[in-house]
Structures are given as structure tokens and as C-alpha cells.
Amino acid sequence: MESVIVRVMAAVEIRAPVSPVFTLVSDPPAKARLNPFLQVIRIEREDPGPLREGSVTFLRLQKGTRIFEYRTRCIRLEPDRLLENQAELPTLFRVRVEVQPIPGGTRLTQREECEITTAMLEHLPVPRRAERAWRTIKLLSLVAPSLARETYAVILRERADALRVVMERELRGWLQAIKEHLETAPEERSAVR
After folding, report:
1. What is the rounded average pLDDT of the residues 156-183?
2. 6: burial class by Cβ within 10 Å (0-12, 13-18, 19+)?
3. Pairing between strand 82-87 and 93-102?
4. pLDDT computed for residue 193 by the predictor
5. Which of these, 183, 181, 167, 184, lies nearest to 27 by C-alpha position?
6. What mean pLDDT do residues 96-101 have?
7. Nearest of 69, 113, 74, 70 to residue 94 by alpha carbon
């Protein structure tokens, strides 16, 4: 098992018109600062002017003690409707954001698709018992490779599923933070800053 593609999706209904919702989600620094699970270290656009297809954004973010640094390229942009970015990484990481008018506001949907390598899954925090089982499987691979491969694949799938659950929960939390920000009156937002 070389890698796993993890796909997550979340949506939220916001009591705000489409245009301000799209303006926020298409502004990488503003959107990232609303993510309650990350700390923004640095985000900057590498090309001047408004966001457009081909625009590149550099991101340096921190989650817990880990620091992530990468570039993302806008691969599709339809103003007030759709934004799609793909990270410039050795593995797949694509984000698709859609906004659509609904009665009373806007529906914001975000889909994320990322390729998780075996090495990434091996470094996920897991309970001690699971870590001992992982090490035992690695040793078993020396004695009974085919049995170890099957068991190893099962454990990797379980870790990928656990990661998917965390990613979905965090994406829902991020969209909820965006919703709360947009539904707060501008004077209240400036008082919070």
C-alpha cells in the first residue's frame, strides 16, 4: 500500500450574500486566520493584483508543534461561485470551495482531497497498544511477509479512516468559524480585533 486518497467535505449555510462570502474565502490570509486549528505564521501572494487562475500563494502554518510550509496554485476561479486550489507538493492536496445562493443567504461548501503516504500514516499519534501492534507487524514482516502485508494494509486503512474523521471535524469547525465571522455585525468584528 503506497498511498491513500482521503476526501472530506463540509458545508454550512451563512446568513450573508454570496459576494462577501466569496470575497472572504478567496482571500487566503483572511480565510486561514479563521481556522481555529491552525496558527498562521506567514501567508503571502506571489503575484500582485486580484486572485486569478494561476495565482500562487505561499503558506507557512503551525498546527500544534508541527510547521507546514507549501505553495498553492489557483487552478480554477469562477467569481462568486467557485475556487479551486492545488498545493505544489509531491503528493496531491486539492481544495475546492463553492458558494451558492440559497433563500436567506449562501451555502458554502468545501471539499478537500489529499494523498496520504504510508510514511505520513506511520507518524500519526495513536494509542500505545496500537503502536505496539504496529511494531509487531513490522517484525512479523521479516518472518511472514504476506501475512504482515495484509495486516499492515488493514492498519493503514484504519489510520486513514481515523485521519478522515479528524479532517472532517476540523473542516466543519473551520466553516463554522467562517459562518460566525460573516454573521457578526462589522462593528462587533472590529471590537473583537
Report:
1. 90
2. buried
3. antiparallel
4. 47
5. 181
6. 98
7. 113
